[in-house]
Amino acid sequence: MKQIKQLIFFAAIVVIIAVSFWPSQASAWGRGHFYVIGTGPAGPRTATLQALDTIKQMDVIIGNEKHIKLFAEYAGSKPVLFDPWTGIWDYKGKIQWELNKEELDRFKVERFRIRDERVKKINALLAEGKDVGLLDSGNPCLYGPSHWYIETFQPQDVIIIPGMGCDAAAMAALGKSTIPAHGTRLVIQTAPFSLMGWKMQDHRPLQDHRPLQDHRLLKDLAKYESTIILYMALWKPQEVFADLQKELPPDMPCAVVYWAGYPDRQRVVRGTVADMGEKLAADKEKFMGLLFIGRFLEGKPYEAAMKRGQKELE
């Protein structure tokens, strides 16, 4: 038994020494990696240990001013290559949906030119064996804009570090079970422009993009008891709820969690399908909020679902 313990101890020492002196993967094959780091919704407090450790290990950081400030302790004095979002969502200071036709035509070309120039810079650093880390909010694979860059690289060049989405922080703020909840069959996570298009009109199946006025998709979804989570729903709330009111009961409860996960800014606004559009239109915040719709906001949704399940088993 003593010999086995000695062997285990010796093996552990060998591993520690090997890790200390073994060259990094990048230096081993001469090429770095492009890391996309999910940082959570509200800075280091809601980031994972893996994300924080990865930021420390990067040679170069990509991030906007807000992210650089939030993670300054972990980024240290590492060089910041650029703000990845400037020029991707705006053109000469104007947001994309505020552009006229001529500006929009130029923007369509310009945003890809900017993206491609930045990708060249990243690739040059990878070729030097540098690891480059892009700081993305929340969960990079759920409405994560970092895919503007990710899809330009070979899969072996990219490593995505998962992050907690703002949906998790917002659900915690609401304190309710989104599913199981009463008779809820599914949870729908989408955005108004994904559901109804940029012009806020429901559309046909993917093979036919002509707009419809009958809100066919909403009508179909309304047949099933569900929890709906809408991202980016605050910029045109009255239009969103004008559509929702056509298919959902007026007393259907709603809630918006603003600045989910930020201890000093988080707040919740509650209402119904009938009055939520006006409430959100009157609020100054038009981006940092997540909209929830569903009966899960009423009573004890989890207990109700459990009792319902017991009846089905009888």
What does this structure look like?
The chain has a 5-stranded mixed beta sheet with strand order 7-8-11-9-10. It has a 4-stranded parallel beta sheet with strand order 2-5-1-6, sandwiched between helices. The chain has helices at 2-21, 25-29, 49-57, 65-70, 72-75, 101-127, 147-150, 166-174, 192-196, 216-221, 237-244, 276-281, 301-313, and strands at 34-38, 60-62, 90-91, 94-95, 132-136, 158-161, 186-190, 226-230, 253-258, 267-272, 289-293. The protein contains 13 helices and 11 strands. With 314 residues, it is α/β, with parallel strands linked by helices. The longest helix is centred in the middle third of the chain and has 27 residues, at 101-127.
Give a quick set of tags describing it.
alpha/beta; 5-stranded mixed beta sheet; 4-stranded parallel beta sheet; globular
Q: Strand content of the residues, in percent?
A: 15-25%
| Structural Rg | 24 Å
Strand elements, count: 11
What is the strand arrangement across the widest sheet?
7-8-11-9-10
Poorly predicted runs: 11-27, 202-214
Averaging pLDDT over every residue, what do you get? 88
Largest sheet: 5 strands, mixed
- What's the end-to-end separation, in Å? 55 Å
Order of helices and strands: HHEHEHHEEHEHEHEHHEHEEHEH
What structural class do the secondary elements suggest?
A: alpha/beta
Report the total helices.
Answer: 13
- Described by the principal axes of the CA atoms, the overall outline is globular
Helix content: 25-40%
Write the layout of secondary structure elements.
Blueprint lengths: L1 H20 L3 H5 L4 E5 L10 H9 L2 E3 L2 H6 L1 H4 L14 E2 L2 E2 L5 H27 L4 E5 L10 H4 L7 E4 L4 H9 L11 E5 L1 H5 L19 H6 L4 E5 L6 H8 L8 E6 L8 E6 L3 H6 L7 E5 L7 H13 L1
